[in-house]
Every structure is written in C-alpha cells, then in structure tokens.
C-alpha cells in the first residue's frame, strides 16, 4: 500500500500533464519492438531508438508495437507524438500505480491492467502494470520490464497458429488480455498453496509469527483484489462500448475474459474467507494451548497440594500426637496418600483431562 | 478451491479456443445416447461412436442427445461440428471449473450448472458439471459421468407420463434443470444434518478437531453457494431473454425453478448463520472449560493453602511455643482446620462454584 | 431450517406439476366455507364436500371461499378445476415451505404468506402458510388449519361493520393481509419480551445453556425474517402491477400494509442487533467471572504462600538458628505474619480486588 | 423497541381505518391554535374547541393550524372532516410509532417525522412524533405535547423577520422541518458527549456495568437512526414529486434540509463506529486486567515456591544431613534464598512484569 | 466528530438563510486577492477591503478571486452581492462542517471540499474547508486560512507554464481541485507510515495505550473517509451535468481527478483493513503474553510442588520412618529430586514450553 501512495505523492505539486515516471525502475534496458502481420505476411523489427518508429498503418496490416521498460519518458513521448496520443493517456502509461481501467479517446483507447507474478522466494506477489493502447489497426503495449508472458502470442503470429493472423488488432488485444488474465490462475494457485501450508502450520505448530503471516497473506490478497476487482469494471466498460474498436464477432471472446475475471474474483472471495478463518483457527489454538497449560498446572497442584498438607500435619511438633507413635503410622499415611492420588487421577480421567 | 484453480491454470499459455479437458476424468467409459420423441412416437439409441450421430432435426420431433463422460475432446468436437456449435461453447463444456451460466449464440444457447452429490463417506459434497445446449428442437446434455438423476425423465418419456411428450425441447430443458435443482434440497438436507450433529458435538464433547470440522463445513457451504448463487443469475438471464428458445407458456415453469433457487439460497444463508454460530458456541465452550478448570484449581488451592500454612506454623522449632504443649492442642488444630474448610465450602457454594 | 428442507426433498424425483402436500398435516378436519356478500345481502355456507362448490360468480357479489386444512390434494384439485387455476399455483398452495410471494396468472393471482403464532409453551414461533387466490370478484383463502385470526373479518361482513360490505374482493384481500401482518406485531412483542428476559438472565445468572438459548433466539429471528422479508417484495410486486386486480382507490390500503411490513422489518433489525449484543454480553460475563475466579486464587495464594515460607524457615533443623531460642521469637513471627497480611490486604484494596 | 411494538399490537384485530391513539398520552391539555398571515397581516387565534375551527382558505393567506396533544381522537376527526383528510392519514397522525414518511393524497400530503429530545436526567433520548399536513395554502401540524421548538418560527411570523411572511405554506413547511432537523444536531452533540464520557470510563475504571452501558448507548443510537434514516427517504420523495406542493424556488431549501439529514446520518455512522470500538476497548481492558492479575500471582508463586522448597529440605529429619550441623549453614541458606529472589526479580524486570 | 456537531448546533434556532460562520476561526487576517488573465496578459491584485472588488467580467479574461479567512460574514456577503450568489450558497461557504458537495445554481455552481493537512506534531489530521464558486469566466475560491497549496498554480499563471493561461475558468477549477486531491496522497502516506509504526509497536512492545492509539487511528481514518467519500459523489455530479460550466475538452481532466479519488478511496479501504487487523494482532499479543505468563507459573509450580511434597514427607515426625536412619537416605532423596526435575524439564521441552 504504502509504496503506491509514496509514488503518487511524488507528483503532487506538479502541473497536470507533466510526464513523469511514477514507480520503481524495474529494468535498465528498454526494448522497443514491432510486429506487422496479416494473413499472408509478417515482419518483426527491434528498434534501436524510439525516434525511428516509422510504420505505415493501413487497413490490411496489423501493427503491434511493444515497449519493455517505461521509465524513459522521452521514449513514451516520442511514441505519443507519432501516434498522436492524448497527454493524460501518456501520464497513465507512466504512472504504474493507478487502478486497472479502460478509457476512450477520439480514435484510440487505453486499457491498463496488472500483470501479476510471484517473487523469487515465492512468498510474495509482485505486480507489474501493462498498458495497451488500441487504435484502428494498431496496438501498442507497454510493460515495465521484459517478460515472456507474451512470447507464446508472438510464436502464434510467427507460426500462424490459431486464428490470430486471420484477425485484426482487436483480436490481438483480446489475446494479450486473455494471456494476462489466465496467468492470474497460476498466481492464485500459488497463493492458495501458501494458505494451505499456513493452515497446516496453525493446526500443528503455531508460534508468535503465525498471526503476522496471516496478516501478510491478507495484505497480498488485498493486492490481488486491487488488481482484479477494477478490471471487471474496465472489461465491462469495453463490453458496453465495443462498437468502435471491436468487431462484433470478437466481443464473445471478451465476454469470455470477463467470465474468467468473475471466476477469479469468486476464488479470491473464497480465499478471503479461508484466510479470515485462519485467524479464528489461530485464536482458538491459542485458547486450546492456554487451556492445556492450565490443566497441567491444575492437575499437579490438585494432586500435590493436599498431599503436602498431610505431610505438613505430621511435621507438627505437638507433644501429644498419638498417630506419630503408632507402629504402622508411617506406612498408613503413605497408603492414604496413594489412595488420594488414585482418586484424583480417576476424577481427572472422568473430566477427560488425562 | 485449490483444485479448480489448478485445473484452470493447466490452460494458461494455450491459444484461446484450444479444446482441452479441464478437470478430473471421472469415468473411463463414454456413453452417447439419443432420444427422439413426439406425442406419438419415441426412439432411443445408444451410439457406438460419436462419428455416427446422424439425426434429422425437424419441427415435429424433439431430439435429446446425452453424453456421459466429457474427457474425450474428439467426441465433443464431433458433436460440435455436427451441430455447428461455437468453439468457445465447446471450451466451456470441457472446462468443468467455470461458474454456472447461460450464454446465447446465434441459433443455440448453452446453460451450464453443477449437479451436486454427496461422497461415499457422506461427509463431503461433490460437484459435477452439466452443460445443456438448447437449439431449435434439439437438446444436448453433457455430464462428467454416467448418473441416474435423469433416469426418471427418461422413464417419463418412455411411458408418456406427464406432459413431456406433448411439449418441445424447451420443456425438456426445464425438466432437466428442475431435476438438478430439486436434487439440491437433498444435498442441503444432508448438509444441515451434519451441521446439527456437529452442533451437538460442540455442546457435549468438543475437542481440538472441532474447529477444523467447522472450517470444513464452512468450505463446503462455500462450494454449495458457488454452485447455486451464479445459477440464479443464469436462470434470470434466460427468463429475461426467453423469446427465442422458450415457448411463452413454459416460462412459468422456469420461474418456478427460479423460485426454488431463491429458496435454496435462503436456506444456505440460514445454514451460514448456523455454522457461524457454531464457532461462537465452540469458543464459548472453550472459555467455559477454562473457567471450570480454573475453579477446580482455585477451590483446591484456596482450601489447602491456608491449612498447610497452619500445619507449617506448628512445624516450627521455636523453643517457646506454648500451644505445642497443651493437652488438646493437636485436636484443637484439627477442629480449626475443619472449620476453615467448612467455611470455604460455604463460600464456594454461595459463589455457585460447587 | 432442516424441516423445510426435508419436506421439499420429498418431492425431488417427481414430475413437475404432481400435486403432493409438502409439510406437516396440522389438522384432521377439513373445513370448506363460502361467504357471498354485497352491500345489501350476505350468505354464509359450510360445504360438506368439495364437490359441491357451486357458486355463481358475478360482478355484484363478492365470493370468498375459505379452506382450513390443505393436506387433502383431492379437495385442492377440485377447487382448482372449478376455478380453472393453474397447476403450478395448486402446487404452491400445497407446498407449505416456499417463500411468501405474489404471482400473476391470466385471470387470477396468488399471494402466499406466513401466518405466525407462538407455540403453547410460549418459547417458540410457529409458522403457518396462507395462500390467497384473488380473481375477479372472488377470493379463495387456504389455511393449514382452522384458526380464528379471520373471525373478526367474518364478523365485520356479518354485521356490516366498516367498509367491507361496500367494497369488492380486492378490499377483502387487503383486509385478510392486513390482519395477518398486524398479527406480526404481537409475535414480535412476544419475541422481544423473551429477549429481554434472556438479557436479564445473562446479566444476573448466566449458565452453560445461555449461549444455546441465544442461538435459539437467533434461529427464531431468522424464521421471522424469512416470513417477513420476502413479503415486502411480494407486496411491492402487487403495488407495481395493481392495474388488473386492485381498484385504484384501494391501492392506498395496500401501501399502508407495505409501510407496516417495513416497520416490522425495522423492528426485526433492531432485535437482531440486540440478540447479537447478548452474545457479547455473555462472553464478557464469562470473562468477568474468570477474572473474579483468578482474583480469589491470587489473593489467597499471595497472602499465604509467603506466610507458609516463613513458617517453613523456622521449621528447619539447623543446629545454629538463634531466633528459635529467643524468648519472644514465636510471638514476633506471628506479628510479622500479621503485618504481611495487612500489607497484602492494603495492596489488594488499592488494586480494587477487595 | 418493545414499547413501539406493544403499542402497535393494541390495534391488531381492529378494522382498518378505526381511529385509535397508539402511544403514550404525553399531555393532559390539548391546545389548538391558528395562525393566518400574508405579507401585510397576520392573526393568531387559540381555539377553545375543535368544533370552532372555521377558517377561510384562500390563495392570499397562509393558514397554519397547530395541535398540541393528539390523544383525543375526536379532535383529530373534526379537523379531518373540516379539511377533508383521508382516513388512513388520520390513522397515521394518531399512531405515534410508525416510521417517518411522506405520503401524497389528492390535494394534500402528509409528512411525519420524529422530534427528538433528551430526558430530564440527560441520559436517554426521547422521541415525539410530529405530523405535518400540507395542502394548498394551509398547513396543519400535530405534536404529541406542547413544546417550544416552533416558537422561534411563530416569532418570525409575528415580527415579520426573515422571508416567512413573503412566502406561502410550502416555505412554512420547510421552516418547521428545518427547525426539527437542526435540533437533531443538539441531540447528537449530547449523545456524543456521553459516548466520550463512557470511553473515558472504559479506559480508567471499567466495572461490570460498563458493557451494559455500552449496550444502552447502542440502543439509543438505534433509536436515533430509526428517526433519521427513513427521513432521508421521505424528504427525497418530496424532492422528487415536488411539483404540486412546492414552489420551484423553494425546492432548494428542501435540498438543504436533505443535505443536513445526510450529514447527520454520517455523524451517526461515526458514532456507531465509536460505540462499537468501545466494546473492543472494554474487552481488551478485561484481558489486560486478567493479565495483570496473573502476573501478580505468577511473581509471588515463582519467588516463594522455590524458597519454600529449600526451607522444606532443611526441615527434613534425616539422621545424616551434614549441612544442618555447619556453623554457617543457616546464614548460608538465607544468602542462597536472597540470591534466588534477586535473580527472579531481575528475570521479571527483563520480562517487563515489574 | 463532536466538534462538527457542536458547531452545527450553534445554528439551530436561527432562521434559515442567516449568515453565520460555523467553525473555528483559524486566522486573524483576511486576505482577498484577484487574478485576471488570458493568453496574453495577467494581473494580480490584493484588495484592501472587500468593498473594492470591482472587476469586469468578460469572455476573454478569466477572473479568479481568492479569499483566505471566512470568519467575517460581511466580506462573504459583499462578495455574494457583487456576484449575485444565492443565500444558501453563502451559508454553505460559511459553514465549515458540511460534506463535500457540488450544487448548481442558475448561472454559477459551488463545489466544496476538504483540504487536508497534518498537524505540527505529525500525529493528527487537520481538515480545512475550501469552497469554489464557478461562474461563466470567473472563479471564487474560499479558504479558511492562508495556505500555500495554490501557490504553484499562481506561479503557473504568472510564468505561463503549462496550459493554464490558454484555458478558461473551468480549467482553473480543475487545476485547483487536482492540487487538493493530489495532496491527499501525501496525507495518506503520512497516515500509512504511522500505521506501520504502530504495527511494529504492537508486535514488539504493546502496552495499555496501544489499543487507544489504534482507536485514534480509526477515528482519523474516519475523518479521511468523510472528506473523500462524498467527494466522489460530488465530482461524479459534475461529470454528469458538465454541459454548462465545463468545456467538453476539459471533462477528461475531471475524469482524471475522479480516477484519483477512486484510487484514494481504495487506499483508504486498504488502510481500514490494516488498522482492523492491528486490533486482532494486539488482542492475540495479549493472549500470547497471558499464555507465556501461565507457562512460567506452570513450570515453576509443576517442578517445585512435587519436590516440596517430598521434603514435607521426610519432615514428618513419625517414630518409625526407617529411611530417615539410612546412611545414604539424604543423598538418595537429592538424587530422586534431581531426577524428577530432569524429567519435568524433558516433558516441558517436548511440550515446547522451554
């Protein structure tokens, strides 16, 4: 939470429209590449500099420009000028901390969402912002760093697998979105495994860090929700206003993505319940342990305090204590003590404490 | 929860539209059968191979194809080609982990819902996906394994019982849905019996597993909700867009199913409250037990500690302790101790601890 | 909860439309009676058999047929045939476990709601289903058993009191509904009295059954809510579609009923808060009691353990313990012990434990 | 809660439309007064009997009739006949337990709301119902007892202060409503002061009554909410249907009242959170106290039990215990005991228990 | 909370429309300044008295009047007369306790929101009301005291930086709003840092004040929410009715502000969860500490009580206790005691108490 707030606050005071990268620089290298394809041909270029983007956009060819690394505002600005993108849209691309959203401009739209991953130690969720600008017959995707989630799509273009080469940029838009959303399932799978591990731990060997870990999972769940929840709204926005950018036949694919998002949200709700249940489990384990500590104390005290009292009695120094002089006094006391102990044990057995 | 996530994640990375079975293979055998009937005739065929589905669909005869076992994508594909079904629809049939939903395609619709059952030991709920494709005068139902829930409907067709032979495929659709939804009552009945048993256990002999069992019931309740809740929406969708596939006279039957779903959801809400109350009961039982442990300890300690102190006094070795030499010193001490004990017991009785 | 589920599950497997009584048979005797009245005349007939219902329905006379006891499906069927009622409507009348609802058919509507009562011991709420079929100029009411809630209305018809004889069947509909809803106030009054009694008990002498009783009240509250909540929707449905069955002038009476329902729901919400607060009260009482147990133990132990230690010291058998031989050694030790005790008591007073 | 339910249940069984006073009679005396005014003139009459209300309503003069004391149904009936008010409206005026609401009749409307006050001891909230009937150029207000909340408005009419004499009855309606709503701020202020006092008490000296007091505040908050929440809806109803009764220019004043109600609801929500937080504070204080009791016990026991054991050792009567015969045995044991005590104290200091 | 209620209650009893300052006087000095600018020129005037505001409003020049210090009702009234502002609008400006809102009047609108800050000790949030009146080509902003949040905007006007000089008063409106909203990020950042510090404290060294501090943070969060939540509605109102006051091209900027508000609300929700989690953490820490206290007590008691009992046995004075006379009796008893102690320690190690 804090990080995102800090970053956004970098900007307060600046004039609106000022282009500034908000977020952590996640890569040194910037990579700008272009795919152009139609049913028959395809071309793949990696640009050396953002000044060289020269591309002829026409109705027959789909142009897909992908940028890995968005910390260089100059590059973003060049692309913005070339494609005549609105200033606020460029701002949104550079700000890695806003909510997933879809926004329409005159002849292009922006769709930004979170690409989720798991960190190296596997115990935290990392989130990267992806912005997709869709215009007539071109699509520009912005990622914070080079990743390989889109590689299968590139392969499909290269090898003409599936329908992608037969379709326009709206289908490419769908393919990218679908890839990112499908990847959420992996993240939730990882998350739910960690939840199960923690549940196991709560039930077998909870320690003082357990609640902290539960809190940590709660926060990660909140991160997940914040990535997915607004996405539903964003996709729903597109589904409602699809006329301009999406061919009618392709809207069914987007509805499919929408269904996946709903399904993921359902899963997150379930996880939320499970994590909330973990806290209850932990608190009840604490109570159970306290209870069992108390029982040990009570058993020991209840058995030995009366015995000690008896020993105390016969340690008194009264002149006239006839029992002390009996021949069998000492063994009789031992017998009494053993009887009392057995009685106590039976009592505790009946109470199910032993 | 986890399972469904794992399964869906099998697919991430694949091109959309790729037909792949997501879920557990629940049967070895695939059974493909066909019913054709109208008011006067009916025919029942079991196909040997999915290639042989040959059927003449016309306005006078209702065709019902039922497939038990959906793990063979080839069979699904053949059926899809024969009836000209949309690719995404086939994907949905093969994916056993999505939410209940109704979706419209050009000349057919798909309705998928969960058929619920109880496992053999009777302590868990199992869920199977049923997809129903409804076209003009034909209906195709897909189940994960052979089951006998639809057998009464088949009997009604065979024996011309009820109105089913007089009606079209939309009424068959209703009959199947109604059967599945009515079966939910049995499941909730089973569930509510288990909840009552656990409630009894919480109140009489809770142990360390009790909260775990409560958590388990919570999860099963969540499974139930996830099967029923989206169904409401799905049926409501059909009720709103019924023009094409449902004869006006039959919409009242669907509304009846809708009412049942609402009633089931109400029951689930009640169960949710009861299960949530179980946790409170359990926690308060824990507190009660702790309390009673504490009382035992306190009673024992409060009675014997003062007595032991008195014994300690007269175990001291001072030269000048006149009491020690009194003739009735020892019996007098006993009398004092008994008085103290009686006083304590009266005190505890007043405090209602004994 | 369970009961209602069990009953509904009686039906799963049967063809839809099969008439079967779902619920407990609450009376042996069936009573079928008819009132016909207009401004000038009225007639009251008790039928011997359901076959004899012969009645001429015309615009000038209001016909009210009332049936007490619905377990005989034959009678319901006869009535259904005579008035040409829809099969699903008859099913609804026979099923005593569905939610309150209003449903429109071609020339009649059904409104079903719960008549609430208190059982003989006064500690549980019983619910009976009442179905009211309203057609043009006739009204049929179905009750599970003979009751006297409608008797005042019959009296008003007989004695021409109020406006009822001047009005049509829609006003009769309102009068019946109003009577049932007004009766809810009595039930809530009874319920709220029991809540107050329990609150008193929690604060003065809670025992192990208390939480169970709180749970019980919660369940009854849930029963109340389930009777009233859907009713709001049902009445609201009628208010919106009133054109056909309700004269414009009478809709204001229904709105009045609607306001009462809202008011009752408000009261139920308040009761819900109070019952939820009871649980908190009880848990805090438990804590308070534990606390006071602990204090007793601590006071006793803290006073006597040091004293016992001192006694132990002078019970040691060292050869050289000069104190033992002092003349005033023994009284001095007593003085010391009394001082310690007084100190402790002052300490506890300051801590407000005594 | 209970009271209101009891009262309403007085009525169950009576025919609808029967005029009966529901609520407590709060005053003996009934006062009926009339103001007539326009820009130039004003007249103020106190009626001796409700039969004498004779008033000529015309477009130039605003007529305001105010009734203090509504328990005399005769008076209400006379007014109702004179102004031709609907029977249900009169019922609403007499029933002091319904929710705030606005209802439209043919040529008049009724607006009923709660006038809130604080009882004499300042620790409870009392609620009085005010009904305002607004017709063309006349307004009738009904209060349960004589009060002085409207006196400033009467003064404004008498002294021609503000705009009230220039405006019609709709502005008078606004002035009355505004006065009642503004008075809510005083009530909430009183309530919030009591909450703060209780918070202070919870933190400094909670006792067994504290939770009961928290419960009491919760109930009063619920009373407040029940007075204000439906009012929002009622005013919103008027804002939407204002055409007939409110001059366009005056609707902005009503919107202002609406804003105040929203603001008051916000405050109530905050108070709700604070009161809920009080319960947590109290429960944690209980835990804290238990903890500190436990610490005292543990410290005492942990220091003295080992010491008593040592004393016990040297109280044994073995023939061969060389330590007993050492010259410095006794002082050495004292030294050992003091060392142990110091060690324990250091340990507890480290644990921050001392 | 209380403060705002007290202030509003100052007004109850006064006629509506009476101008009275509600809130604390935050500054002695009133500063009234005017900016007029268009693309080519700009002028900046500080008025000596509010009577001198003379300004010619025309289409080519944007006029921005800013008032710091609103406690002088005379000044507000003068401005109101000059610009012909509605009386209720002036009331709203003077009342610093109402919710953020947007309201439309004939040819101007008012937008009021909260400017948030942190107090000098950095541990509380202070809120100041800003009202912005927007008319055709003029804008008047009212602040409670002189502040420097708007200084960067003034600089942009002076130095012609950004687009502000090219745009009309609607863009100025946006710039002011954007500045205030962006500043919220700083406040939340400060808040979230304090939450983190407290979380650290809860986990390492909670004391009796901790829950109080958590309560305090909750209240501040509530202040934040109350500033931001209604703002969403207010901006949304403007977005819907923008026709009159906002040029179409600029509505996208307002939508940007709206997105920021949503994002801030998301952050607040997260913070709310975190703070709620803090309470759980604290309560579980309390339980943990109690548990560890109990363990210390139990370990000490369980080890020494049996040992003391053994010592007690051999302190008895029976004539016939053969062990007492054995040569190795005393060392043997020591050996036994050491064995018991070791056994206990092993047991506690196994239980993970040591």
Would you give an account of this structure?
Five copies of one chain form a homopentamer. The two termini of chain A are 49 Å apart. Chain A is rod-shaped, with a radius of gyration of 34 Å. Chain A contains eight helices and seven strands. With 354 residues, chain A is an alpha+beta fold. In chain A, strand 5 (108-118) and strand 6 form a beta hairpin. In chain A, strands 2-1-3-7-6-5-4 form a seven-stranded mixed sheet, with helices on both faces. In chain A, helix 5 packs antiparallel against helix 6 (210-240). The longest helix of chain A is centred in the C-terminal third of the chain and has 63 residues, at 251-313. The first copy, chain A, has helices at residues 2-9, 73-83, 87-94, 151-159, 169-204, 210-240, 251-313, 329-350; strands at 31-37, 42-47, 62-68, 101-104, 108-118, 125-135, 138-143. The first copy, chain A, folds into two domains: 2-284, 2-Layer Sandwich (Beta Polymerase, domain 2), CATH 3.30.460; 292-350, Methane Monooxygenase Hydroxylase, Chain G, domain 1 (Up-down Bundle).
